[in-house]
Amino acid sequence: MRKKKHGAERIAACADLLIADPSVLLTDPQSPFGTARPLCLEIGCGKGAFACGTAAAQPDINLIAMERVADVACIALERAAAERELRPGDNLRFIIGNAQNLSEWFPEHCLDRIYLNFSDPWPKAGYAKRRLTHVGFLEQYRRALKTGGVLLFKTDNVALFDFSLEQFDAAGLEVLWQTRDLHNSPYGEGNIMTEYESNFTVKGFTINAAAVRFDKKAD
Ligand SMILES: C[S@@+](CC[C@H](N)C(=O)[O-])C[C@H]1O[C@@H](n2cnc3c(N)ncnc32)[C@H](O)[C@@H]1O
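Above are the sequence and the S-adenosylmethionine SMILES. Below is the predicted complex in structure-token form.
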């Protein structure tokens, strides 16, 4: 993406939606919100369609949306600001940052749910560790999620989906459900589309999805 003109000023204009120093979450992960609610995290939120839609549709949760590219997060922040009146519970905040730093920002076992939507596939074998469903990341999610917490994963990419199922198995996680065609499955009810999901669906791709439960690691 080309660098946004006045990106820093535009992000600053949405400062009330941004967790500028995510390390504050370590002391109290609910502190950015006026009301404590089940806490959910979307990693790689892109331009924010899913985060905004989910926060509006689920006023009973608090949602933090994370995006590592500031110019992309800027678009998500501006969208969230424009759609503010759809969220009377004021339940959406953003982090501009990389999921690699999750354990520096989130205390242990504070999250109820993590969403991964159309994560970058990193197709070259040498980059497997960068995939957000690699066991290295799954162990970070296990630390941050409550016992019984759930990861919800959607992707158009069959190779990434197959890899992810292998990684869930390797990490000893329970796959609650999986489908190779979310929109024509019972799990698609209430589904909120992401930008990538809309684009791939228009092009005729089916959407792979899974829900995975994290319990304490077996000894
Ligand atoms: C393929 S896009 C999908 C965007 C959006 N989730 C959607 O479905 O429309 C992946 C997004 O994840 C972000 N991302 C990739 N790796 C990340 C990481 N380690 N931490 C935070 N964001 C990341 C990228 O910058 C990009 O915006």
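The helical segments are 7-12, 24-27, 49-57, 70-82, 102-105, 135-144, 158-170, 195-202.
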